[in-house]
Every structure is written in structure tokens, then in C-alpha cells.
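A quick aside before the break. I want you to see a complete sequence-to-structure record at least once, exactly as it would be stored in a machine-readable document. Don't worry about memorizing anything.
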Amino acid sequence: MNFKKSLILLLALCLLFALAGCSGSSTQAEEAAAEEAESEDALVEYAVEGVGLFRLPQGFSQNAQELTQPLPSTMVEFEKDGWYIMANRFGTDAYEAAGVALPADLEEYSTRSGVQDGVPEGSVFDYDSQGNYVTEFANEDGTITYYVLLQGPESFGSILLTAPEDVFDSDTAALWASGSKLD
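That is the input. The structure line, written in C-alpha cells, reads:
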């Protein structure tokens, strides 16, 4: 009888150790999944020659191109998970070609016809919680656009972050835009 009790106790201890081992591997799996989710949300730098530096989550496709019409500029498009982001930069060459002076600041830039033609009538630019000079509006196709104006050294430009209403989040757009800088 004593042997049976010892054997049962030994088996119970083995079962206890086996269960303890299983719980450790599930914790490790949970930690690995959390790290993977964090790395997907982590912002990485996308450097685009002639436009600037953009901080977005990993995995965006990008397409950059030089434009000559209506004014010389460089633009880049990014796409991922329903988000479409377009950024452009106009340097002194564009302002010289247009025969106008470089704007004094973002507030003046927001009143220029090129900017005003791209927003619905009555749109107002203001600073968001991240320091971006921005206006937000709904489009006829059901998407929402976060239109951010940027100033670089002797350049001005914009970033339009657009996504369907069920994907769009203005806090996310503000965060992404805040890490962007023009050349």
C-alpha cells in the first residue's frame, strides 16, 4: 500500500511539473505575439529623395515621382491597409516658375490657391495636438482626409492621409504626420 501511495504522489508531482511547464510556454507565446503586434505598430522612417522623411508603420508600399506640371515638384504615394498617403514638396524653383514669393509661414501657405483648391469650401486649418497645421474633411467617396501642411528649408508641401471612414483615425494620422519633415 505504501508503494501505491508513493507512486500516486510521484505521478501527481509529474503532472504538476508538466502543467507548470505548459503555462510557461503559453506565456512565452503571448509575449511573442505582443512583441509582434508592437513591431507592426512601430514607426519606421521612409526617406524619399526630393520630398523628405516620413515616419509610418512598417510595410507601406511607396511610389515617388518628379512632376513638371503644373509646377516643378516631387511627390510620393504610400499605401497599406486601406490608407492612401500622398505627400508633395514645392521648392524655390516652383515658386520662381510661378512668379510668386515663397510664403512667409504655414498660415500664409494655407491661403494660396494651390492649397485652397484641394480642400472643400469653408475648410479651416489649425494646429492639432501633435503640432501639425491641418484640416480634416470627408470626401464624396466615403473616405476621410487629414490634410497637413509642412514647411521645410526653403520649401512647402503637404501630406494627405486618406482612409475609409471605418479605418480612419485622426489621432493615428496626427501621429504619423508629426514625424514627417520636408527636404
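Two observations worth writing down. The first strand starts at residue 43 and ends at 48. Confidence is low (pLDDT under 50) at residues 3-7, 9-20. We'll return to this after the break.
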